[in-house]
Amino acid sequence: MSKGASVLFDVPGPRARARNTMLTVVMSLVFAAIFALLVWRLYDKGQFEEKLWTPFTEWKVWRGLLLPGLLNTLKAAALATVLALLFGAVFGLARLSDHWWIRIPAGAVVEFFRGIPLLILIFLAFFVPNKISPEIAESPLGQAQRLSVDYFFSIFGVESNAGVVTVPAFAAVVFGLTMYNGSVLAEVVRAGVLSIPKGQSEAAYSVGLRKNGVMRLVLLPQAVTVMMPAIVSQIVVLLKDTALGFIIAYGEFLQAGFKQVPANYHNNVLQAGIVVAIIYIAINMSLSRVATWLEARSRRSRKTSAKTLKAGGPPPVAGVGVTQQSI
Amino acid sequence: MFDFGPFFDNIGEILDGFWATIRLAAAAAVLSLIIGTILASFRVSPVPVLRAFGTSYVNIVRNTPLTLVLLMCSLGLNDILALKFSDNSSTTYYWWAVLGLSAYTGAFVCETLRAGINTVPLGQAEAARSIGLTFFQSLRMIILPQAFRSIIAPMGSVLIAMIKNTTVAAAASYAEVALVTKTIVDKPSFASGVIPLFLGVAVGFLILTLPTGYFFGWLAKRMAVAR
Protein backbone atom coordinates (compact mmCIF):
# COMPACT_ATOMS: atom_id res chain seq x y z
CA MET A 1 0.00 0.00 0.00
CA SER A 2 1.29 3.41 -0.87
CA LYS A 3 1.89 6.21 1.52
CA GLY A 4 -0.63 8.32 -0.43
CA ALA A 5 -3.44 5.98 0.45
CA SER A 6 -3.25 6.47 4.17
CA VAL A 7 -3.41 10.27 4.02
CA LEU A 8 -6.64 10.14 2.06
CA PHE A 9 -8.78 8.81 4.87
CA ASP A 10 -8.85 8.91 8.67
CA VAL A 11 -9.28 5.99 10.97
CA PRO A 12 -12.94 5.26 10.18
CA GLY A 13 -15.66 6.05 12.69
CA PRO A 14 -18.84 3.99 13.08
CA ARG A 15 -20.61 5.37 10.00
CA ALA A 16 -17.56 5.11 7.77
CA ARG A 17 -16.99 1.58 9.04
CA ALA A 18 -20.54 0.62 8.16
CA ARG A 19 -20.16 2.19 4.72
CA ASN A 20 -16.86 0.39 4.13
CA THR A 21 -18.32 -2.94 5.18
CA MET A 22 -21.25 -2.41 2.84
CA LEU A 23 -18.90 -1.50 -0.03
CA THR A 24 -16.75 -4.52 0.73
CA VAL A 25 -19.75 -6.83 0.56
CA VAL A 26 -21.18 -5.24 -2.58
CA MET A 27 -17.90 -5.17 -4.46
CA SER A 28 -17.01 -8.72 -3.42
CA LEU A 29 -20.38 -9.82 -4.78
CA VAL A 30 -19.76 -7.94 -8.04
CA PHE A 31 -16.30 -9.48 -8.51
CA ALA A 32 -17.63 -12.92 -7.57
CA ALA A 33 -20.46 -12.53 -10.06
CA ILE A 34 -18.08 -11.59 -12.89
CA PHE A 35 -15.84 -14.51 -11.99
CA ALA A 36 -18.80 -16.90 -11.82
CA LEU A 37 -20.07 -15.72 -15.22
CA LEU A 38 -16.64 -16.37 -16.72
CA VAL A 39 -16.42 -19.81 -15.14
CA TRP A 40 -19.90 -20.66 -16.31
CA ARG A 41 -19.03 -19.56 -19.81
CA LEU A 42 -15.84 -21.63 -19.75
CA TYR A 43 -17.83 -24.63 -18.54
CA ASP A 44 -20.49 -24.03 -21.17
CA LYS A 45 -17.86 -24.11 -23.93
CA GLY A 46 -16.30 -27.27 -22.51
CA GLN A 47 -13.08 -25.58 -21.48
CA PHE A 48 -12.70 -27.60 -18.29
CA GLU A 49 -12.20 -30.89 -20.12
CA GLU A 50 -9.22 -32.66 -18.71
CA LYS A 51 -7.42 -33.21 -22.01
CA LEU A 52 -7.14 -29.44 -22.51
CA TRP A 53 -5.22 -28.94 -19.27
CA THR A 54 -3.14 -32.11 -18.95
CA PRO A 55 -0.53 -31.20 -21.63
CA PHE A 56 0.97 -28.76 -19.15
CA THR A 57 1.63 -31.52 -16.63
CA GLU A 58 3.55 -33.64 -19.11
CA TRP A 59 7.34 -33.48 -19.09
CA LYS A 60 7.32 -34.18 -22.84
CA VAL A 61 5.56 -30.89 -23.55
CA TRP A 62 7.89 -28.93 -21.32
CA ARG A 63 11.02 -30.47 -22.71
CA GLY A 64 9.94 -30.44 -26.33
CA LEU A 65 8.13 -27.09 -26.59
CA LEU A 66 7.99 -24.82 -23.57
CA LEU A 67 11.56 -24.94 -22.29
CA PRO A 68 13.20 -24.47 -25.73
CA GLY A 69 10.82 -21.54 -26.26
CA LEU A 70 11.75 -20.04 -22.91
CA LEU A 71 15.42 -20.51 -23.77
CA ASN A 72 14.93 -18.67 -27.08
CA THR A 73 13.18 -15.82 -25.27
CA LEU A 74 15.99 -15.53 -22.74
CA LYS A 75 18.61 -15.77 -25.48
CA ALA A 76 17.10 -12.93 -27.49
CA ALA A 77 16.55 -10.86 -24.34
CA ALA A 78 20.10 -11.39 -23.08
CA LEU A 79 21.77 -10.50 -26.36
CA ALA A 80 19.49 -7.52 -26.90
CA THR A 81 20.15 -6.29 -23.34
CA VAL A 82 23.90 -6.31 -23.86
CA LEU A 83 23.67 -4.59 -27.24
CA ALA A 84 21.09 -2.08 -26.01
CA LEU A 85 23.28 -1.15 -23.06
CA LEU A 86 26.19 -0.55 -25.43
CA PHE A 87 23.99 1.46 -27.80
CA GLY A 88 22.54 3.41 -24.90
CA ALA A 89 25.92 4.22 -23.39
CA VAL A 90 27.38 5.37 -26.72
CA PHE A 91 24.41 7.46 -27.83
CA GLY A 92 23.59 8.77 -24.37
CA LEU A 93 27.12 10.12 -23.98
CA ALA A 94 27.17 11.31 -27.60
CA ARG A 95 24.08 13.43 -26.86
CA LEU A 96 26.00 15.08 -24.04
CA SER A 97 28.93 15.90 -26.30
CA ASP A 98 30.20 19.45 -26.56
CA HIS A 99 30.48 19.13 -30.34
CA TRP A 100 27.27 19.90 -32.17
CA TRP A 101 28.21 17.55 -35.04
CA ILE A 102 28.14 14.62 -32.61
CA ARG A 103 25.29 15.80 -30.38
CA ILE A 104 22.73 16.56 -33.06
CA PRO A 105 23.02 13.39 -35.20
CA ALA A 106 23.02 11.25 -32.04
CA GLY A 107 19.89 13.06 -30.86
CA ALA A 108 18.19 12.52 -34.20
CA VAL A 109 18.97 8.77 -34.15
CA VAL A 110 17.68 8.39 -30.60
CA GLU A 111 14.48 10.34 -31.25
CA PHE A 112 13.84 8.44 -34.47
CA PHE A 113 14.12 4.99 -32.94
CA ARG A 114 12.07 6.01 -29.91
CA GLY A 115 9.37 7.52 -32.06
CA ILE A 116 8.45 4.54 -34.19
CA PRO A 117 6.89 1.32 -32.95
CA LEU A 118 9.08 -1.63 -32.07
CA LEU A 119 7.09 -3.92 -34.33
CA ILE A 120 7.84 -1.72 -37.34
CA LEU A 121 11.56 -1.89 -36.45
CA ILE A 122 11.36 -5.68 -36.30
CA PHE A 123 9.56 -5.76 -39.65
CA LEU A 124 12.21 -3.43 -41.05
CA ALA A 125 15.02 -5.80 -40.13
CA PHE A 126 13.06 -8.86 -41.20
CA PHE A 127 11.77 -7.79 -44.62
CA VAL A 128 13.95 -5.01 -45.98
CA PRO A 129 17.40 -6.66 -46.35
CA ASN A 130 15.85 -9.57 -48.19
CA LYS A 131 14.18 -7.23 -50.69
CA ILE A 132 16.96 -4.76 -51.33
CA SER A 133 20.04 -7.01 -51.17
CA PRO A 134 19.87 -8.31 -54.78
CA GLU A 135 19.93 -4.75 -56.02
CA ILE A 136 22.88 -3.84 -53.77
CA ALA A 137 24.74 -7.00 -54.84
CA GLU A 138 24.70 -5.71 -58.44
CA SER A 139 25.89 -2.26 -57.45
CA PRO A 140 29.47 -1.25 -56.53
CA LEU A 141 28.52 -1.84 -52.89
CA GLY A 142 27.98 -5.54 -53.54
CA GLN A 143 31.40 -6.53 -52.32
CA ALA A 144 30.96 -4.55 -49.11
CA GLN A 145 27.61 -6.19 -48.51
CA ARG A 146 29.03 -9.67 -49.04
CA LEU A 147 31.96 -9.05 -46.72
CA SER A 148 29.89 -7.45 -43.97
CA VAL A 149 27.41 -10.33 -44.01
CA ASP A 150 30.11 -13.00 -44.11
CA TYR A 151 32.36 -11.54 -41.48
CA PHE A 152 30.01 -9.68 -39.15
CA PHE A 153 26.28 -10.26 -39.49
CA SER A 154 26.77 -14.02 -39.79
CA ILE A 155 27.33 -13.98 -36.00
CA PHE A 156 23.59 -13.30 -35.69
CA GLY A 157 22.68 -15.97 -38.22
CA VAL A 158 22.23 -13.67 -41.21
CA GLU A 159 22.86 -15.53 -44.45
CA SER A 160 23.80 -14.39 -47.90
CA ASN A 161 22.90 -16.68 -50.78
CA ALA A 162 23.79 -15.55 -54.30
CA GLY A 163 23.38 -11.93 -53.28
CA VAL A 164 20.09 -12.44 -51.43
CA VAL A 165 20.49 -11.67 -47.75
CA THR A 166 18.13 -13.50 -45.39
CA VAL A 167 17.69 -12.20 -41.86
CA PRO A 168 16.47 -14.87 -39.43
CA ALA A 169 13.64 -13.95 -37.09
CA PHE A 170 16.04 -14.08 -34.14
CA ALA A 171 18.30 -11.38 -35.60
CA ALA A 172 15.31 -9.22 -36.54
CA VAL A 173 13.93 -9.41 -32.99
CA VAL A 174 17.33 -8.61 -31.50
CA PHE A 175 17.76 -5.67 -33.91
CA GLY A 176 14.39 -4.18 -33.02
CA LEU A 177 14.85 -4.65 -29.27
CA THR A 178 18.37 -3.23 -29.38
CA MET A 179 17.45 -0.12 -31.33
CA TYR A 180 14.32 0.72 -29.38
CA ASN A 181 15.53 -0.10 -25.88
CA GLY A 182 18.97 1.26 -26.68
CA SER A 183 17.40 4.61 -27.51
CA VAL A 184 15.41 4.59 -24.30
CA LEU A 185 18.53 3.66 -22.35
CA ALA A 186 20.42 6.47 -24.08
CA GLU A 187 17.90 8.86 -22.56
CA VAL A 188 18.31 7.15 -19.19
CA VAL A 189 22.08 7.60 -19.39
CA ARG A 190 21.70 11.23 -20.37
CA ALA A 191 19.21 11.87 -17.57
CA GLY A 192 21.48 10.05 -15.13
CA VAL A 193 24.51 12.14 -15.98
CA LEU A 194 22.48 15.36 -16.00
CA SER A 195 21.05 14.52 -12.58
CA ILE A 196 24.48 14.77 -10.94
CA PRO A 197 24.72 18.18 -9.24
CA LYS A 198 26.79 20.71 -11.13
CA GLY A 199 29.19 21.15 -8.21
CA GLN A 200 30.57 17.67 -8.85
CA SER A 201 31.82 18.42 -12.36
CA GLU A 202 32.93 21.93 -11.35
CA ALA A 203 34.97 20.48 -8.51
CA ALA A 204 36.42 17.86 -10.84
CA TYR A 205 37.44 20.50 -13.39
CA SER A 206 38.93 22.65 -10.67
CA VAL A 207 41.25 19.88 -9.52
CA GLY A 208 42.55 19.76 -13.08
CA LEU A 209 40.74 16.83 -14.67
CA ARG A 210 39.92 16.98 -18.36
CA LYS A 211 36.51 16.34 -19.95
CA ASN A 212 37.27 12.65 -20.31
CA GLY A 213 38.39 12.34 -16.70
CA VAL A 214 35.43 14.29 -15.34
CA MET A 215 33.02 11.99 -17.17
CA ARG A 216 34.87 8.74 -16.52
CA LEU A 217 36.00 9.26 -12.93
CA VAL A 218 33.38 11.54 -11.41
CA LEU A 219 30.08 11.70 -13.29
CA LEU A 220 29.61 8.17 -14.65
CA PRO A 221 30.33 6.23 -11.44
CA GLN A 222 27.71 8.30 -9.62
CA ALA A 223 25.31 8.19 -12.55
CA VAL A 224 25.41 4.39 -12.75
CA THR A 225 24.16 4.10 -9.16
CA VAL A 226 21.36 6.53 -9.97
CA MET A 227 20.44 4.77 -13.24
CA MET A 228 20.45 1.14 -12.09
CA PRO A 229 16.75 0.88 -11.16
CA ALA A 230 15.66 2.50 -14.41
CA ILE A 231 17.94 0.20 -16.39
CA VAL A 232 16.60 -2.94 -14.71
CA SER A 233 13.00 -1.89 -15.27
CA GLN A 234 13.83 -1.26 -18.92
CA ILE A 235 15.18 -4.81 -19.08
CA VAL A 236 11.77 -6.00 -17.86
CA VAL A 237 10.18 -4.09 -20.75
CA LEU A 238 12.69 -5.65 -23.14
CA LEU A 239 11.98 -9.15 -21.88
CA LYS A 240 8.26 -8.59 -22.27
CA ASP A 241 8.72 -7.22 -25.77
CA THR A 242 10.50 -10.38 -26.96
CA ALA A 243 6.93 -11.66 -27.25
CA LEU A 244 6.63 -9.56 -30.41
CA GLY A 245 8.77 -12.22 -32.04
CA PHE A 246 5.51 -14.18 -32.14
CA ILE A 247 4.33 -12.05 -35.04
CA ILE A 248 7.30 -12.92 -37.27
CA ALA A 249 7.27 -16.56 -36.08
CA TYR A 250 10.40 -16.45 -33.95
CA GLY A 251 10.27 -19.61 -31.84
CA GLU A 252 10.17 -17.82 -28.49
CA PHE A 253 8.13 -18.67 -25.42
CA LEU A 254 4.82 -17.22 -26.61
CA GLN A 255 5.18 -18.94 -29.98
CA ALA A 256 5.99 -22.25 -28.28
CA GLY A 257 3.40 -22.07 -25.52
CA PHE A 258 0.59 -20.26 -27.27
CA LYS A 259 0.87 -21.53 -30.84
CA GLN A 260 2.68 -24.88 -30.85
CA VAL A 261 0.96 -26.33 -27.79
CA PRO A 262 -2.61 -25.47 -28.90
CA ALA A 263 -1.79 -26.68 -32.42
CA ASN A 264 -0.81 -30.08 -31.06
CA TYR A 265 -3.23 -30.44 -28.14
CA HIS A 266 -6.87 -29.86 -29.08
CA ASN A 267 -6.58 -26.10 -29.66
CA ASN A 268 -6.36 -25.35 -25.92
CA VAL A 269 -5.69 -21.64 -26.53
CA LEU A 270 -7.18 -20.32 -23.28
CA GLN A 271 -5.42 -22.85 -21.08
CA ALA A 272 -2.11 -22.24 -22.84
CA GLY A 273 -2.56 -18.49 -22.51
CA ILE A 274 -3.14 -18.76 -18.79
CA VAL A 275 -0.08 -20.95 -18.20
CA VAL A 276 2.16 -18.80 -20.41
CA ALA A 277 0.93 -15.63 -18.72
CA ILE A 278 1.67 -17.02 -15.25
CA ILE A 279 5.25 -17.80 -16.24
CA TYR A 280 5.79 -14.39 -17.84
CA ILE A 281 4.35 -12.69 -14.75
CA ALA A 282 6.59 -14.71 -12.44
CA ILE A 283 9.74 -13.83 -14.39
CA ASN A 284 8.88 -10.15 -14.80
CA MET A 285 7.78 -9.66 -11.22
CA SER A 286 10.98 -11.11 -9.87
CA LEU A 287 12.98 -8.80 -12.16
CA SER A 288 10.85 -5.84 -11.01
CA ARG A 289 11.60 -6.82 -7.42
CA VAL A 290 15.28 -6.44 -8.24
CA ALA A 291 14.59 -2.97 -9.64
CA THR A 292 12.69 -1.93 -6.51
CA TRP A 293 15.41 -3.32 -4.27
CA LEU A 294 18.09 -1.50 -6.26
CA GLU A 295 16.04 1.69 -6.03
CA ALA A 296 15.78 1.41 -2.27
CA ARG A 297 19.47 0.62 -1.99
CA SER A 298 20.50 3.47 -4.21
CA ARG A 299 18.28 5.88 -2.21
CA ARG A 300 20.18 4.93 0.92
CA SER A 301 23.51 4.94 -0.87
CA ARG A 302 25.97 7.70 -0.14
CA LYS A 303 28.07 6.85 -3.17
CA THR A 304 26.13 9.31 -5.27
CA SER A 305 25.07 12.88 -4.80
CA ALA A 306 22.03 12.76 -7.07
CA LYS A 307 18.43 11.62 -6.72
CA THR A 308 17.64 8.11 -7.89
CA LEU A 309 15.85 7.81 -11.24
CA LYS A 310 12.49 6.13 -10.86
CA ALA A 311 12.24 2.45 -11.68
CA GLY A 312 8.62 2.33 -12.78
CA GLY A 313 6.73 4.44 -15.20
CA PRO A 314 6.90 4.91 -18.91
CA PRO A 315 10.02 6.02 -20.70
CA PRO A 316 10.10 9.73 -21.34
CA VAL A 317 9.15 10.61 -24.89
CA ALA A 318 10.26 13.17 -27.38
CA GLY A 319 9.07 16.65 -26.64
CA VAL A 320 8.05 15.92 -23.10
CA GLY A 321 11.60 16.21 -21.83
CA VAL A 322 13.42 14.15 -19.29
CA THR A 323 13.65 16.78 -16.61
CA GLN A 324 9.88 17.13 -16.30
CA GLN A 325 9.58 13.45 -15.42
CA SER A 326 10.54 14.07 -11.84
CA ILE A 327 7.42 12.82 -10.15
CA MET B 1 15.80 1.42 -54.71
CA PHE B 2 14.38 4.80 -53.81
CA ASP B 3 11.60 4.59 -56.37
CA PHE B 4 8.50 6.00 -54.71
CA GLY B 5 6.19 4.70 -57.49
CA PRO B 6 5.15 1.43 -55.79
CA PHE B 7 4.65 3.30 -52.54
CA PHE B 8 2.17 5.70 -54.13
CA ASP B 9 0.46 2.81 -55.94
CA ASN B 10 -0.44 1.46 -52.49
CA ILE B 11 -1.01 4.80 -50.76
CA GLY B 12 -4.74 4.13 -50.40
CA GLU B 13 -4.20 0.97 -48.40
CA ILE B 14 -1.53 2.61 -46.23
CA LEU B 15 -3.75 5.55 -45.41
CA ASP B 16 -6.59 3.15 -44.59
CA GLY B 17 -4.16 1.39 -42.25
CA PHE B 18 -3.24 4.65 -40.53
CA TRP B 19 -6.91 5.54 -40.22
CA ALA B 20 -7.51 2.18 -38.54
CA THR B 21 -4.58 2.88 -36.20
CA ILE B 22 -5.98 6.31 -35.31
CA ARG B 23 -9.45 4.90 -34.65
CA LEU B 24 -7.97 2.23 -32.38
CA ALA B 25 -5.71 4.71 -30.57
CA ALA B 26 -8.48 7.26 -30.02
CA ALA B 27 -10.93 4.74 -28.60
CA ALA B 28 -8.23 3.12 -26.45
CA ALA B 29 -7.08 6.52 -25.15
CA VAL B 30 -10.53 7.36 -23.81
CA LEU B 31 -11.23 3.91 -22.42
CA SER B 32 -7.79 3.45 -20.84
CA LEU B 33 -8.07 6.81 -19.07
CA ILE B 34 -11.41 5.73 -17.64
CA ILE B 35 -10.12 2.28 -16.62
CA GLY B 36 -6.94 3.78 -15.17
CA THR B 37 -8.80 6.37 -13.12
CA ILE B 38 -11.16 3.76 -11.70
CA LEU B 39 -8.23 1.47 -10.87
CA ALA B 40 -6.28 4.29 -9.22
CA SER B 41 -9.26 5.20 -7.04
CA PHE B 42 -9.57 1.51 -6.13
CA ARG B 43 -5.91 1.42 -5.16
CA VAL B 44 -6.15 4.36 -2.77
CA SER B 45 -9.59 3.57 -1.38
CA PRO B 46 -10.29 2.67 2.26
CA VAL B 47 -11.92 -0.63 1.22
CA PRO B 48 -9.40 -3.51 1.37
CA VAL B 49 -11.19 -5.60 -1.28
CA LEU B 50 -10.91 -2.79 -3.82
CA ARG B 51 -7.27 -2.17 -2.95
CA ALA B 52 -6.45 -5.85 -3.35
CA PHE B 53 -8.27 -5.97 -6.68
CA GLY B 54 -6.48 -2.89 -7.99
CA THR B 55 -3.07 -4.11 -6.92
CA SER B 56 -3.45 -7.59 -8.36
CA TYR B 57 -4.92 -6.24 -11.61
CA VAL B 58 -1.99 -3.89 -12.12
CA ASN B 59 0.60 -6.52 -11.25
CA ILE B 60 -0.94 -9.13 -13.52
CA VAL B 61 -1.61 -6.94 -16.54
CA ARG B 62 1.60 -4.93 -16.39
CA ASN B 63 3.75 -8.05 -16.40
CA THR B 64 1.98 -9.84 -19.24
CA PRO B 65 3.20 -9.15 -22.78
CA LEU B 66 0.72 -7.05 -24.74
CA THR B 67 0.87 -9.57 -27.56
CA LEU B 68 -0.50 -12.21 -25.20
CA VAL B 69 -3.19 -9.87 -23.84
CA LEU B 70 -4.46 -9.06 -27.33
CA LEU B 71 -4.24 -12.66 -28.52
CA MET B 72 -6.17 -13.85 -25.47
CA CYS B 73 -8.86 -11.31 -26.33
CA SER B 74 -9.13 -12.22 -30.00
CA LEU B 75 -8.42 -15.96 -30.02
CA GLY B 76 -9.51 -16.85 -26.51
CA LEU B 77 -12.45 -14.68 -25.54
CA ASN B 78 -13.80 -13.91 -28.99
CA ASP B 79 -13.20 -17.15 -30.88
CA ILE B 80 -13.37 -19.83 -28.22
CA LEU B 81 -15.71 -18.35 -25.63
CA ALA B 82 -17.69 -16.70 -28.44
CA LEU B 83 -18.05 -13.45 -26.52
CA LYS B 84 -18.57 -11.38 -29.65
CA PHE B 85 -19.40 -7.71 -29.93
CA SER B 86 -21.02 -8.22 -33.30
CA ASP B 87 -21.37 -10.86 -35.99
CA ASN B 88 -19.23 -8.82 -38.33
CA SER B 89 -15.73 -10.16 -37.74
CA SER B 90 -13.86 -6.91 -38.37
CA THR B 91 -16.11 -4.99 -35.94
CA THR B 92 -15.75 -7.53 -33.18
CA TYR B 93 -11.97 -7.75 -33.62
CA TYR B 94 -11.80 -3.95 -33.52
CA TRP B 95 -13.63 -3.77 -30.21
CA TRP B 96 -11.58 -6.59 -28.70
CA ALA B 97 -8.42 -4.80 -29.78
CA VAL B 98 -9.72 -1.59 -28.17
CA LEU B 99 -10.65 -3.45 -25.00
CA GLY B 100 -7.36 -5.37 -24.78
CA LEU B 101 -5.23 -2.32 -25.45
CA SER B 102 -7.22 -0.24 -22.94
CA ALA B 103 -7.05 -2.95 -20.30
CA TYR B 104 -3.28 -3.06 -20.75
CA THR B 105 -2.74 0.71 -20.93
CA GLY B 106 -5.16 1.24 -18.05
CA ALA B 107 -2.69 -0.43 -15.68
CA PHE B 108 -0.01 2.07 -16.69
CA VAL B 109 -2.43 5.00 -16.44
CA CYS B 110 -3.33 3.81 -12.94
CA GLU B 111 0.30 3.70 -11.82
CA THR B 112 1.00 7.14 -13.29
CA LEU B 113 -2.07 8.58 -11.62
CA ARG B 114 -1.14 7.02 -8.30
CA ALA B 115 2.26 8.65 -8.54
CA GLY B 116 0.40 11.92 -9.17
CA ILE B 117 -1.80 11.40 -6.12
CA ASN B 118 1.36 11.01 -4.05
CA THR B 119 2.52 14.47 -5.16
CA VAL B 120 -0.58 16.16 -3.72
CA PRO B 121 0.49 17.64 -0.38
CA LEU B 122 -0.81 16.01 2.78
CA GLY B 123 -2.43 19.28 3.87
CA GLN B 124 -4.83 19.21 0.94
CA ALA B 125 -6.31 15.87 1.98
CA GLU B 126 -6.39 16.89 5.63
CA ALA B 127 -8.13 20.16 4.84
CA ALA B 128 -10.66 18.31 2.70
CA ARG B 129 -11.41 15.92 5.54
CA SER B 130 -11.59 18.67 8.11
CA ILE B 131 -14.38 20.46 6.26
CA GLY B 132 -16.27 17.16 6.32
CA LEU B 133 -15.81 15.79 2.81
CA THR B 134 -16.09 12.03 2.51
CA PHE B 135 -13.38 9.95 0.86
CA PHE B 136 -15.01 9.95 -2.57
CA GLN B 137 -15.82 13.67 -2.38
CA SER B 138 -12.28 14.61 -1.46
CA LEU B 139 -10.91 12.31 -4.15
CA ARG B 140 -13.19 13.78 -6.80
CA MET B 141 -12.99 17.47 -5.89
CA ILE B 142 -9.60 17.92 -4.22
CA ILE B 143 -7.13 15.14 -4.89
CA LEU B 144 -7.75 13.96 -8.46
CA PRO B 145 -7.93 17.41 -10.11
CA GLN B 146 -4.53 18.31 -8.66
CA ALA B 147 -3.10 14.86 -9.37
CA PHE B 148 -4.19 15.04 -13.01
CA ARG B 149 -2.53 18.40 -13.49
CA SER B 150 0.78 17.19 -12.13
CA ILE B 151 0.95 14.07 -14.30
CA ILE B 152 0.16 15.52 -17.72
CA ALA B 153 3.69 14.98 -19.05
CA PRO B 154 4.04 11.34 -17.93
CA MET B 155 0.49 10.68 -19.08
CA GLY B 156 1.59 11.94 -22.50
CA SER B 157 4.34 9.32 -22.45
CA VAL B 158 1.80 6.63 -21.60
CA LEU B 159 -0.48 7.72 -24.44
CA ILE B 160 2.39 7.82 -26.95
CA ALA B 161 3.50 4.35 -25.87
CA MET B 162 -0.11 3.29 -26.41
CA ILE B 163 -0.18 4.78 -29.94
CA LYS B 164 2.93 2.79 -30.78
CA ASN B 165 1.46 -0.31 -29.15
CA THR B 166 -1.51 -0.24 -31.53
CA THR B 167 0.79 -2.03 -33.99
CA VAL B 168 0.68 -5.12 -31.79
CA ALA B 169 -3.01 -5.43 -32.69
CA ALA B 170 -1.67 -6.81 -35.99
CA ALA B 171 -1.30 -10.09 -34.09
CA ALA B 172 -4.97 -9.96 -33.13
CA SER B 173 -6.32 -9.86 -36.69
CA TYR B 174 -6.94 -6.11 -36.71
CA ALA B 175 -5.92 -4.52 -40.01
CA GLU B 176 -3.96 -1.55 -38.73
CA VAL B 177 -0.92 -0.11 -40.41
CA ALA B 178 1.66 -2.74 -39.36
CA LEU B 179 -0.50 -5.52 -40.77
CA VAL B 180 -1.10 -3.47 -43.94
CA THR B 181 2.67 -2.98 -44.30
CA LYS B 182 3.26 -6.70 -43.95
CA THR B 183 0.55 -7.49 -46.52
CA ILE B 184 2.03 -5.03 -49.01
CA VAL B 185 5.56 -6.38 -48.53
CA ASP B 186 4.30 -9.93 -49.05
CA LYS B 187 2.66 -9.04 -52.39
CA PRO B 188 4.58 -10.68 -55.26
CA SER B 189 4.04 -7.57 -57.39
CA PHE B 190 5.73 -5.40 -54.77
CA ALA B 191 9.30 -6.13 -55.82
CA SER B 192 10.97 -2.77 -55.28
CA GLY B 193 10.10 0.22 -53.17
CA VAL B 194 10.32 -1.40 -49.75
CA ILE B 195 12.51 1.42 -48.40
CA PRO B 196 10.03 4.17 -49.35
CA LEU B 197 7.29 2.04 -47.77
CA PHE B 198 9.06 1.80 -44.42
CA LEU B 199 10.10 5.44 -44.58
CA GLY B 200 6.47 6.38 -45.18
CA VAL B 201 5.23 4.28 -42.27
CA ALA B 202 7.97 5.63 -39.97
CA VAL B 203 7.18 9.21 -40.92
CA GLY B 204 3.49 8.49 -40.39
CA PHE B 205 4.17 7.34 -36.84
CA LEU B 206 6.44 10.28 -36.17
CA ILE B 207 3.61 12.54 -37.35
CA LEU B 208 1.33 10.85 -34.81
CA THR B 209 3.73 10.72 -31.88
CA LEU B 210 5.93 13.83 -32.04
CA PRO B 211 3.12 16.45 -32.02
CA THR B 212 1.38 14.48 -29.24
CA GLY B 213 4.59 14.69 -27.22
CA TYR B 214 5.04 18.40 -27.81
CA PHE B 215 1.35 19.02 -27.07
CA PHE B 216 1.55 17.26 -23.72
CA GLY B 217 4.81 19.03 -22.92
CA TRP B 218 3.15 22.38 -23.61
CA LEU B 219 0.02 21.42 -21.69
CA ALA B 220 2.07 20.27 -18.71
CA LYS B 221 3.79 23.64 -18.51
CA ARG B 222 0.55 25.51 -18.89
CA MET B 223 -1.40 23.49 -16.35
CA ALA B 224 1.38 23.05 -13.80
CA VAL B 225 0.18 23.49 -10.21
CA ALA B 226 2.14 26.34 -8.67
CA ARG B 227 3.29 25.34 -5.20
From TrEMBL, chain A:
It is found in: Cell membrane. Belongs to the binding-protein-dependent transport system permease family. SUPFAM superfamilies: MetI-like (SSF161098). The chain crosses the membrane at residues 21-43, 76-96, 108-128, 162-180, 217-239, 269-294. One of its GO terms (cellular component) is ATP-binding cassette (ABC) transporter complex. CDD domains: TM_PBP2 (cd06261). InterPro entries: AA_ABC_transptr_permease_3TM (IPR010065), ArtM/GltK/GlnP/TcyL/YhdX-like (IPR043429), MetI-like (IPR000515), MetI-like_sf (IPR035906). Keywords: Cell membrane, Membrane, Transmembrane, Transmembrane helix, Transport. GO terms for biological process: amino acid transport. This is Amino acid ABC transporter permease. Residues 306-327 have a biased composition (Low complexity). GO terms for molecular function: transmembrane transporter activity. It is a multi-pass membrane protein. Its main location: membrane. PANTHER family: AMINO ACID ABC TRANSPORTER PERMEASE, MEMBRANE COMPONENT OF AMINO ACID ABC TRANSPORTER. Residues 304-327 are annotated as: Disordered. Residues 70-287 form the ABC transmembrane type-1 domain.
Automatic annotation (TrEMBL), chain B:
Belongs to the binding-protein-dependent transport system permease family. HisMQ subfamily. It is found in: Cell membrane. It is a multi-pass membrane protein. This is Amino acid ABC transporter permease. The keyword Cell membrane applies. Pfam families: BPD_transp_1. Residues 18-216 form the ABC transmembrane type-1 domain. Its main location: membrane. The lineage of its organism: Bacteria, Bacillati, Actinomycetota, Actinomycetes, Streptosporangiales. The chain crosses the membrane at residues 20-42, 63-81, 93-110, 151-175, 195-220. Gene3D superfamilies: MetI-like. GO terms for biological process: amino acid transport. Keywords: Amino-acid transport, Cell membrane, Membrane, Transmembrane, Transmembrane helix, Transport. GO terms for molecular function: transmembrane transporter activity. GO terms for cellular component: ATP-binding cassette (ABC) transporter complex.
